[in-house]
Amino acid sequence: MPLEEINATTTQVASGLRRPMAIVAPDDGTKRLFIVEKRGTVRVYHPDTGLAQTPIIDITASVDVSGNERGLLSIALAPDFNQSQDLYLVYTALPDGAVTLARYRLDDARLEPLLSQEHAEYDNHNGGHLFFGTDGYLYWSIGDGGGAGDPFDSGQRLDTLLGKMLRVDVNRTCGSLAYCIPADNPFVGRAGARGEIWMYGLRNPWRFSIDHADGSMWIGDVGQGRWEEISHIKAGRQAGVNLGWSCYEGLEVFDQAQCRSDVQYTKPVFTYSPYTGGCSVIGGLVYRGQQFANLVGGTYIATDYCSSTVWALREDGRGGYLQAEIGEMPTQVTSFGTTPEGEFYVVNDLPGGLHRVSFERAAPTCRIKMTNRTWGTGMTVDLTITNTGTTPIDGWTLNFHLALGQTVISDWNTDLTQGSNVVTAVNAAHNGSIAPGRSVTMGYLASHTGDASLPARFTLNGDACAIGT
Questions:
Q1: Is-contact 30 21, C-beta < 8 A?
Q2: CA 110 remoteness from chain centre
Q3: Per residue in 63-73, pLDDT tens?
Q4: CA 298, CA 285: separation in Å to the nearest integer?
Q5: 243-265 burial, b if ≥16 CB within 10 A, otherwise e?
């Protein structure tokens, strides 16, 4: 199904959660969801009986919740959870906020810290997501240590776990370690480097996921203020990847002093500017369920904490990605989770709810046809906007995104403004009405710095538009 013909919706199924942060579901036939609360508790939701009042886990005595971004942050179930009853937690620990990975033995309520990273100077950028890979190892994302602009230069350093994706073996112990470092981790044996590091160059990878269908990793990395970004790294290409921070933020150089000519940086596959109303990308999941497989099977779904926009990304088979805005989530979503069957849920921070996610077909009510001409460092683009719906449009606002380095110089048949790479085009006095089946035209002249590609997504009055004839 074309992404522009999909609409994401949510249904609230539980309330009364206290700042929920993450969701997991044991594949034990119980239909339970485990929901992390920031204060240090884990609650159980069952679709038949609702949200249990008494937490199944309570580690509040160990959790530092000072500051907005500290607390119990994530949870992962051991692959053998049904037998071992082991699960893994990431939290900021008392007394100093160290970001800590621990095993929790559910059968005897025992918390066993395994690995900690000092994080005392600032209370933000803890990252803190967990995911077991197809290889059985545990992956853990940690932020750069907080503050603004990576003050410790953590992203590009290999002697700290800050600003990294880690990969550890929690099924064994090695010497003085409560875990083992896999021998094929990329920096094992390198002088001055931490062997736990799998990838580096991250700012605050709050949520990432591993697609167990192909082993690829999707990372939502929260930006400094200009760009939110999503990276997709295929299996077999992950070890030692440098995702750029703080040399890069998104596709732009952020701190030239952190850039090196002998390093290969891996670019994100999707970026967006806070000018869209966003503030923090909430990395999601690839849909592998059955209920909506004909609509979004194999499609990656993410959102933003502030704008609540739902992003859909899908590989186009030519090395690129199709992309569309396909609806809105509830306000302040913090995390996605799935049932064992692959159906989606989300939790939102305030007021603290659990929501089931659904997808439906919604034929686009607009279509955009583009023609362009490029030369040197300039380009013109003409847009034909067609009302493909059944009701007249009386007044319109078209939003779209330019490639990095493109700047609008002038426009016609519209009142156009640009903020960062986001364009807002409002109808002129003479073309505000578009009858069903009819079209209006507008266009713009822009300069570019080498990338003269056309916009890849449009919304008209908030609805996604199809592109093409």
A1: no
A2: 32
A3: 999 999 999 99
A4: 10
A5: bbbbbbbbbeebbeebeeeeeee
d(C-alpha 32, C-alpha 128), whole Å: 23
**Beta pairing partners, 208:** 219
pLDDT at 319: 92
Give me the phi and psi of 83, to 5 degrees please.
-95, -45
Q: Is the bond leading into 433 cis (omega within 30 degrees of zero)? A: no
Contacts of 18 (CB under 8 A, 6+ apart): 37, 38, 39, 41, 352
Q: Are strands 422-427 and 353-361 parallel, antiparallel or unpaired?
A: unpaired
**What are residue 63's DSSP bridge partners?**
93
Instruction: State how far the Cα of 273 lies from the Cα of 418, in Å rounded to an integer.
Output: 12
CA distance 383 to 441: 6
pLDDT tens, 317-352? 999 999 999 999 999 999 999 999 999 999 999 899
CA distances from 97 to 41, 66, 152, 303, 463 (A): 17, 8, 17, 27, 43
Separation of CA 215 from chain center: 17
Check pLDDT > 90 for residue 276: no
**Distance (Å, rounded) from C-alpha 229 to C-alpha 220?**
6
CA distance 212 to 309: 25
Q: What is the mean pLDDT of the chain?
A: 97
Extract the tokens encoding 278.
Answer: 């966003």
CA distance 97 to 91: 8
Q: Is 224 left (phi over 0), alpha (psi -120 to 50) or beta?
A: alpha
